[in-house]
Design brief:
The complex is a heterodimer of chains A (162) and B (156).
Chain A (H helix, E strand, L loop, with lengths): L6 E6 L3 H17 L2 E9 H9 L5 H28 L4 E8 L1 H12 L3 E4 L8 H6 L1 H8 L3 E4 L3 H10 L2
Parallel strand pairs in A: 1-2, 1-4, 2-3, 4-5
Chain B lengths: L11 E2 L7 H12 L8 H14 L3 E3 L2 E2 L2 E4 L6 E11 L9 E10 L3 H15 L2 H9 L3 H12 L6
Helix pairs in contact in B: 1-2
The chains are: A alpha/beta (162), B alpha/beta (156).
Chain lengths: 162, 156
Protein backbone atom coordinates (compact mmCIF):
# COMPACT_ATOMS: atom_id res chain seq x y z
CA UNK A 1 0.00 0.00 0.00
CA UNK A 2 1.36 3.39 -0.89
CA UNK A 3 1.87 5.87 1.91
CA UNK A 4 -1.37 7.35 3.20
CA UNK A 5 0.05 10.84 3.66
CA UNK A 6 3.13 11.89 1.71
CA UNK A 7 3.20 15.63 2.07
CA UNK A 8 1.93 17.81 4.91
CA UNK A 9 1.59 21.59 4.94
CA UNK A 10 1.08 23.39 8.24
CA UNK A 11 -0.20 26.95 8.27
CA UNK A 12 1.38 29.18 10.92
CA UNK A 13 -0.64 32.16 12.09
CA UNK A 14 2.08 33.70 14.24
CA UNK A 15 0.68 33.07 17.70
CA UNK A 16 1.79 30.83 20.55
CA UNK A 17 -1.01 28.42 19.66
CA UNK A 18 0.42 28.03 16.17
CA UNK A 19 3.55 26.46 17.67
CA UNK A 20 1.32 23.73 19.09
CA UNK A 21 -0.37 23.38 15.70
CA UNK A 22 3.09 22.83 14.24
CA UNK A 23 3.90 20.23 16.90
CA UNK A 24 0.85 18.26 15.81
CA UNK A 25 2.02 18.44 12.20
CA UNK A 26 5.49 17.26 13.29
CA UNK A 27 3.93 14.24 15.04
CA UNK A 28 1.93 13.39 11.91
CA UNK A 29 4.96 13.81 9.65
CA UNK A 30 6.93 11.44 11.86
CA UNK A 31 4.08 8.92 12.02
CA UNK A 32 3.50 8.88 8.26
CA UNK A 33 7.14 9.47 7.35
CA UNK A 34 5.80 12.39 5.33
CA UNK A 35 7.49 15.49 3.97
CA UNK A 36 6.69 18.51 6.15
CA UNK A 37 6.30 22.12 4.99
CA UNK A 38 5.39 25.12 7.18
CA UNK A 39 3.97 28.33 5.73
CA UNK A 40 3.65 31.81 7.22
CA UNK A 41 1.94 34.53 5.20
CA UNK A 42 2.56 38.22 5.84
CA UNK A 43 -0.97 39.63 5.76
CA UNK A 44 -0.62 42.26 3.04
CA UNK A 45 -4.37 42.49 2.56
CA UNK A 46 -4.89 43.98 6.03
CA UNK A 47 -1.86 46.26 5.65
CA UNK A 48 -3.10 47.62 2.35
CA UNK A 49 -6.61 48.03 3.72
CA UNK A 50 -5.27 50.13 6.62
CA UNK A 51 -3.20 52.26 4.27
CA UNK A 52 -6.23 52.85 2.06
CA UNK A 53 -8.33 53.79 5.09
CA UNK A 54 -5.52 56.22 6.06
CA UNK A 55 -5.21 54.60 9.48
CA UNK A 56 -1.64 53.75 8.50
CA UNK A 57 0.83 56.02 6.80
CA UNK A 58 3.22 54.51 4.26
CA UNK A 59 6.22 54.44 6.58
CA UNK A 60 4.11 52.71 9.25
CA UNK A 61 2.86 50.12 6.77
CA UNK A 62 6.44 49.37 5.71
CA UNK A 63 7.52 49.06 9.32
CA UNK A 64 4.70 46.59 10.05
CA UNK A 65 5.48 44.61 6.93
CA UNK A 66 9.13 44.27 7.96
CA UNK A 67 8.17 43.35 11.54
CA UNK A 68 5.63 40.77 10.37
CA UNK A 69 8.23 39.25 8.10
CA UNK A 70 10.67 39.06 10.99
CA UNK A 71 7.93 37.63 13.21
CA UNK A 72 7.21 34.94 10.59
CA UNK A 73 10.88 34.04 10.23
CA UNK A 74 11.21 33.62 14.00
CA UNK A 75 8.22 31.28 14.13
CA UNK A 76 9.37 29.28 11.12
CA UNK A 77 12.86 28.88 12.59
CA UNK A 78 11.42 27.79 15.90
CA UNK A 79 9.26 25.17 14.14
CA UNK A 80 12.22 23.96 12.11
CA UNK A 81 14.13 23.37 15.35
CA UNK A 82 11.17 21.60 16.98
CA UNK A 83 10.94 19.31 13.95
CA UNK A 84 14.67 18.70 13.92
CA UNK A 85 14.54 17.69 17.59
CA UNK A 86 12.21 14.85 16.57
CA UNK A 87 14.20 13.85 13.51
CA UNK A 88 11.82 15.49 11.05
CA UNK A 89 12.94 17.85 8.32
CA UNK A 90 10.72 20.90 7.95
CA UNK A 91 10.77 23.14 4.88
CA UNK A 92 9.96 26.80 5.63
CA UNK A 93 7.87 28.95 3.32
CA UNK A 94 7.33 32.68 3.86
CA UNK A 95 5.09 34.60 1.49
CA UNK A 96 3.43 38.01 1.38
CA UNK A 97 -0.15 38.28 0.23
CA UNK A 98 -3.69 37.30 1.08
CA UNK A 99 -3.40 34.66 3.79
CA UNK A 100 -6.02 32.16 2.64
CA UNK A 101 -5.11 32.52 -1.05
CA UNK A 102 -1.42 31.91 -0.41
CA UNK A 103 -2.04 28.88 1.83
CA UNK A 104 -4.50 27.29 -0.60
CA UNK A 105 -2.22 27.98 -3.57
CA UNK A 106 0.73 26.42 -1.75
CA UNK A 107 -1.30 23.28 -1.05
CA UNK A 108 -1.95 23.02 -4.78
CA UNK A 109 1.63 23.83 -5.76
CA UNK A 110 3.09 21.25 -3.38
CA UNK A 111 0.31 18.78 -4.09
CA UNK A 112 0.03 18.29 -0.32
CA UNK A 113 -2.19 15.48 0.95
CA UNK A 114 -2.93 17.11 4.28
CA UNK A 115 -3.18 20.67 5.54
CA UNK A 116 -2.84 21.29 9.28
CA UNK A 117 -4.33 24.50 10.73
CA UNK A 118 -5.00 25.94 14.18
CA UNK A 119 -8.34 25.83 15.93
CA UNK A 120 -11.04 27.84 14.18
CA UNK A 121 -12.45 30.84 16.01
CA UNK A 122 -15.88 30.95 17.55
CA UNK A 123 -17.99 32.72 14.97
CA UNK A 124 -20.63 35.14 16.14
CA UNK A 125 -22.49 35.01 12.84
CA UNK A 126 -22.42 33.33 9.46
CA UNK A 127 -21.03 36.57 8.07
CA UNK A 128 -17.87 36.04 10.11
CA UNK A 129 -17.23 32.87 8.12
CA UNK A 130 -16.91 34.96 4.98
CA UNK A 131 -14.16 37.11 6.48
CA UNK A 132 -12.28 34.74 8.77
CA UNK A 133 -9.01 33.57 7.22
CA UNK A 134 -9.06 30.21 9.02
CA UNK A 135 -12.58 29.46 7.82
CA UNK A 136 -11.67 30.38 4.27
CA UNK A 137 -8.60 28.15 4.30
CA UNK A 138 -10.69 25.30 5.73
CA UNK A 139 -13.36 25.66 3.04
CA UNK A 140 -11.13 26.30 0.04
CA UNK A 141 -8.30 23.83 0.62
CA UNK A 142 -8.35 21.11 -2.04
CA UNK A 143 -7.03 18.45 0.35
CA UNK A 144 -8.03 17.04 3.74
CA UNK A 145 -7.65 19.53 6.57
CA UNK A 146 -6.72 18.70 10.16
CA UNK A 147 -7.91 21.31 12.66
CA UNK A 148 -5.80 21.10 15.81
CA UNK A 149 -7.68 21.15 19.13
CA UNK A 150 -6.91 20.20 22.69
CA UNK A 151 -3.52 21.88 22.79
CA UNK A 152 -2.50 20.22 26.06
CA UNK A 153 -2.93 16.75 24.59
CA UNK A 154 -0.91 17.80 21.53
CA UNK A 155 1.90 19.09 23.75
CA UNK A 156 1.99 15.71 25.52
CA UNK A 157 1.92 13.84 22.22
CA UNK A 158 4.88 15.88 20.97
CA UNK A 159 6.85 15.35 24.19
CA UNK A 160 6.30 11.60 24.02
CA UNK A 161 7.35 11.40 20.39
CA UNK A 162 10.69 9.58 20.13
CA UNK B 1 -11.98 39.32 14.69
CA UNK B 2 -14.31 41.58 16.61
CA UNK B 3 -13.83 44.98 18.20
CA UNK B 4 -16.89 44.32 20.38
CA UNK B 5 -14.98 41.66 22.27
CA UNK B 6 -12.60 44.36 23.58
CA UNK B 7 -14.67 47.57 23.78
CA UNK B 8 -16.28 47.74 27.22
CA UNK B 9 -18.72 50.28 28.63
CA UNK B 10 -16.22 51.41 31.27
CA UNK B 11 -13.81 52.41 28.50
CA UNK B 12 -16.27 54.80 26.82
CA UNK B 13 -16.79 58.48 27.53
CA UNK B 14 -19.87 60.09 26.01
CA UNK B 15 -18.69 63.70 26.21
CA UNK B 16 -15.00 64.45 26.33
CA UNK B 17 -13.99 67.37 28.55
CA UNK B 18 -10.81 67.76 26.51
CA UNK B 19 -10.61 70.53 23.96
CA UNK B 20 -7.54 69.41 22.07
CA UNK B 21 -6.07 66.25 20.60
CA UNK B 22 -3.52 65.38 23.28
CA UNK B 23 -5.92 65.99 26.16
CA UNK B 24 -8.57 63.85 24.46
CA UNK B 25 -6.13 60.98 24.10
CA UNK B 26 -5.10 61.36 27.75
CA UNK B 27 -8.72 61.46 28.89
CA UNK B 28 -9.57 58.17 27.16
CA UNK B 29 -6.29 56.62 28.34
CA UNK B 30 -7.36 57.50 31.87
CA UNK B 31 -10.37 55.19 31.43
CA UNK B 32 -8.19 52.44 30.03
CA UNK B 33 -6.21 52.41 33.27
CA UNK B 34 -9.10 50.28 34.58
CA UNK B 35 -8.05 47.55 32.17
CA UNK B 36 -5.85 44.85 33.64
CA UNK B 37 -4.26 44.57 30.20
CA UNK B 38 -2.68 48.03 30.51
CA UNK B 39 0.48 47.69 32.57
CA UNK B 40 2.04 51.14 32.10
CA UNK B 41 -0.28 54.00 31.13
CA UNK B 42 2.48 56.57 30.62
CA UNK B 43 4.52 54.29 28.36
CA UNK B 44 1.35 53.56 26.39
CA UNK B 45 0.67 57.27 25.95
CA UNK B 46 4.27 57.90 24.91
CA UNK B 47 3.92 55.27 22.17
CA UNK B 48 0.61 56.71 20.99
CA UNK B 49 2.04 60.24 20.84
CA UNK B 50 5.09 58.92 19.01
CA UNK B 51 2.75 57.55 16.36
CA UNK B 52 0.92 60.90 16.17
CA UNK B 53 4.24 62.56 15.32
CA UNK B 54 4.33 60.57 12.05
CA UNK B 55 0.98 61.93 10.93
CA UNK B 56 -2.36 62.76 12.52
CA UNK B 57 -4.64 59.80 13.09
CA UNK B 58 -7.60 62.07 12.41
CA UNK B 59 -8.53 60.14 9.28
CA UNK B 60 -11.45 62.28 8.13
CA UNK B 61 -15.25 62.14 8.40
CA UNK B 62 -15.01 63.27 12.03
CA UNK B 63 -13.10 60.19 13.17
CA UNK B 64 -9.70 59.74 14.78
CA UNK B 65 -7.98 56.46 15.61
CA UNK B 66 -4.92 57.22 17.72
CA UNK B 67 -3.08 53.95 18.14
CA UNK B 68 0.20 52.43 19.11
CA UNK B 69 2.07 49.21 19.36
CA UNK B 70 3.51 49.05 22.80
CA UNK B 71 5.06 46.85 25.43
CA UNK B 72 2.82 48.61 27.96
CA UNK B 73 -0.18 46.38 27.23
CA UNK B 74 -0.60 42.65 27.61
CA UNK B 75 -3.41 42.35 25.12
CA UNK B 76 -5.34 44.56 22.75
CA UNK B 77 -7.15 47.50 24.39
CA UNK B 78 -9.60 50.03 23.00
CA UNK B 79 -11.34 53.06 24.45
CA UNK B 80 -13.84 55.47 22.93
CA UNK B 81 -14.53 59.15 23.44
CA UNK B 82 -17.00 61.51 21.79
CA UNK B 83 -17.00 65.25 21.42
CA UNK B 84 -20.22 66.84 20.19
CA UNK B 85 -18.51 70.17 19.53
CA UNK B 86 -15.54 68.52 17.86
CA UNK B 87 -11.81 68.56 18.46
CA UNK B 88 -9.03 70.00 16.40
CA UNK B 89 -7.06 66.87 15.51
CA UNK B 90 -5.13 68.20 12.49
CA UNK B 91 -7.30 65.80 10.53
CA UNK B 92 -6.48 64.85 6.98
CA UNK B 93 -9.68 66.52 5.72
CA UNK B 94 -9.21 69.59 7.95
CA UNK B 95 -12.51 68.93 9.72
CA UNK B 96 -13.10 68.59 13.46
CA UNK B 97 -13.11 65.17 15.08
CA UNK B 98 -16.14 63.92 17.00
CA UNK B 99 -15.43 60.22 17.44
CA UNK B 100 -12.12 59.07 18.91
CA UNK B 101 -11.09 55.43 19.17
CA UNK B 102 -7.89 54.97 21.16
CA UNK B 103 -6.21 51.62 20.59
CA UNK B 104 -3.13 49.86 21.84
CA UNK B 105 -1.72 46.44 21.15
CA UNK B 106 1.09 44.28 22.30
CA UNK B 107 4.08 43.83 20.03
CA UNK B 108 3.62 40.09 20.53
CA UNK B 109 0.51 39.63 18.43
CA UNK B 110 0.82 41.87 15.41
CA UNK B 111 -1.60 39.87 13.30
CA UNK B 112 -4.41 40.27 15.81
CA UNK B 113 -3.79 44.01 15.97
CA UNK B 114 -3.82 44.40 12.21
CA UNK B 115 -7.07 42.55 11.84
CA UNK B 116 -8.77 44.53 14.61
CA UNK B 117 -7.65 47.81 13.08
CA UNK B 118 -8.93 46.62 9.71
CA UNK B 119 -12.22 45.63 11.36
CA UNK B 120 -12.61 49.11 12.84
CA UNK B 121 -11.81 50.73 9.50
CA UNK B 122 -14.65 48.71 7.91
CA UNK B 123 -17.07 49.97 10.57
CA UNK B 124 -16.21 53.63 10.35
CA UNK B 125 -16.51 53.96 6.59
CA UNK B 126 -20.22 53.39 7.16
CA UNK B 127 -21.80 56.85 7.50
CA UNK B 128 -24.85 55.43 9.26
CA UNK B 129 -22.62 53.84 11.89
CA UNK B 130 -20.89 57.18 12.51
CA UNK B 131 -24.22 58.96 12.75
CA UNK B 132 -25.62 56.38 15.18
CA UNK B 133 -22.47 56.68 17.30
CA UNK B 134 -23.02 60.44 17.42
CA UNK B 135 -26.58 59.90 18.63
CA UNK B 136 -25.82 57.16 21.17
CA UNK B 137 -27.07 58.02 24.65
CA UNK B 138 -24.89 55.79 26.79
CA UNK B 139 -21.72 53.67 26.80
CA UNK B 140 -23.96 50.61 26.61
CA UNK B 141 -25.52 51.92 23.44
CA UNK B 142 -22.05 52.57 21.98
CA UNK B 143 -21.01 48.97 22.65
CA UNK B 144 -24.31 47.63 21.32
CA UNK B 145 -23.91 49.65 18.13
CA UNK B 146 -20.42 48.26 17.51
CA UNK B 147 -21.75 44.73 18.01
CA UNK B 148 -24.76 45.41 15.79
CA UNK B 149 -22.78 46.92 12.91
CA UNK B 150 -20.13 44.20 13.05
CA UNK B 151 -22.93 41.74 12.40
CA UNK B 152 -24.26 43.57 9.37
CA UNK B 153 -21.10 44.76 7.66
CA UNK B 154 -21.86 42.76 4.50
CA UNK B 155 -25.01 44.77 3.91
CA UNK B 156 -23.15 48.03 3.32
Amino acid sequence: MSKLVKKILVSIAGSEASIVTAKYAICLAKLFDAELHAIYVVDMKSLEELLRARIFVKVEEMEYEADLEEHGKRYLNCIKELAQAKGVKCHSILTKGVVHDDVVNKVKELDADLLVIGELKQLASRIDAIYDEGEQIFREAPCSVAVVKNLKAVEEMYEELK
Amino acid sequence: MRISKYLKEEFCVMELKAEDKNSAIEEIAQLLKKSKELTNAQAFLDDVFKREELSSTGIGDGVAIPHGRTDAVREFIIGFGRSKDGLDFNSLDGEKVHLVFLMGASNKDLNLYLRLLAELSRLIINGKFRQDMMNAQSPKEVCDLVLQYEGMRNTR
